[in-house]
Amino acid sequence: MKTVHVDTGRPYDIYIEKGVIDSAGEYAKKLSNAQKVTIITDSNVAPLYQWRVINSLSAAGFTVHTHVFKAGEESKHLGTIAEMYKALADFGMTRKDLIVALGGGVCGDMAGFAAATYLRGIDFMQIPTSLLAQVDSSVGGKTGVDLPQGKNLVGAFHQPVAVLIDPDTLLTLPDQFIIDGMGEVIKYGCIKDAAFFDFLEQENALQHLEEVIETCVSIKRDVVSRDEREAGERMLLNFGHTLGHAIEKLRDFKGITHGMAVAVGMVMMTRAGEAQGITEAGTTARVEALCKKYLLPVKESFSAEELAKAAQSDKKTAGGGISLVLLHTIGDSFTKKLPLEELRAFFEF
Ligand code: MG
């Protein structure tokens, strides 16, 4: 068992252990006075794990209801949230009851948002089952839902009572979802940890998943503890994301996963930094090679004009400028504010 303590406004622990999913009831009992628990999960994850969680919660004395929504990014809209509210209200969930988010990033973001807003906020526990959710989205308390105009445009900061990470759930994932998560894993090495980047280069990360998850979660914990609401340092976690989101948008979210788009964004951003003389020469080659090693894409054919236009609608723009995350070198990242009109030229390299 590895435990990572997160010291946000409301502190909580992340428990990383094979089989921890079967202890969900014990953790819930320890951390919550709930009588009822609603498990929110999707149609892919429900058949795999819902009974293990239901059994564990029931054995701990909770009355359990499961709400299943259709798996996939297309479900990430307010209509799905409205169905969650209905399920919670119909089941008679009160303010002291508990939501368990069981699934990948989409599930955690939406179940977390339902928890943040139902009855002005109730407790929730994260049980992330995808690599992306385990290393990234389940930690930090960001919850949200997409609008037709863009991703995660509605949301709330709401910290879970605990995160239970069971690396064994990754064994059932199709390769594509492992590749997706590796985009965010590599990001952590790039922005904060050169030794971890070396490790990913030298070893096969997939044979060391527990250590990899612990390292990523610890880096995110450190950043989020210092900057819970993204006033400064937390922005570094967006490395590769401004361009990544632009690419996802230009592709209409089809044929590319989030982690894949982030990989392309990281490589392009590093190349732009090198072209400007801000990033140490040779860094792009290493980031590119590492992404390729884990089967991530490293380029896209969109023009600087298209990318700049799509990036401008990103929610990270403010006051006529956009904050870009760049690397001095591997493990050493910083943000640079750029006027929007200079964005296109920045991407022309
Ligand atoms: Mg991300």
Folded structure, characterized:
The radius of gyration is 20 Å and the shape is globular. It has 13 helices and twelve strands. The protein is of the alpha/beta class and 349 residues long. Helix 5 packs parallel to helix 8 and helix 9 crosses helix 12 (304-312). The mean pLDDT is 94. It folds into two domains: 2-172, Rossmann fold (3-Layer(aba) Sandwich); 175-346, Dehydroquinate synthase-like, alpha domain (Up-down Bundle). Strand 1 and strand 2 form a beta hairpin. It starts with a strand and ends with a helix. The protein has a seven-stranded mixed beta sheet with strand order 1-2-9-6-5-3-4, with helices on both faces. Strands 10-11-12 form a three-stranded antiparallel beta sheet. Helix content is 44%, strand content 21%. The protein has helices at residues 24-31, 46-59, 78-90, 105-117, 131-137, 175-192, 194-202, 209-226, 241-250, 258-275, 283-293, 304-312, 343-346; strands at residues 2-6, 12-16, 36-42, 63-69, 98-103, 123-128, 142-147, 150-157, 162-165, 317-318, 321-329, 332-339. The protein binds magnesium ion. Magnesium ion is lined by residues 136, 184, 241, 258, 262.
Outline of the structure:
This protein is an alpha/beta fold and 349 residues long. The chain is built from 13 helices and 12 strands. The protein has 2 domains: 171 residues, 3-Layer(aba) Sandwich (Rossmann fold); 172 residues, Up-down Bundle (Dehydroquinate synthase-like, alpha domain).
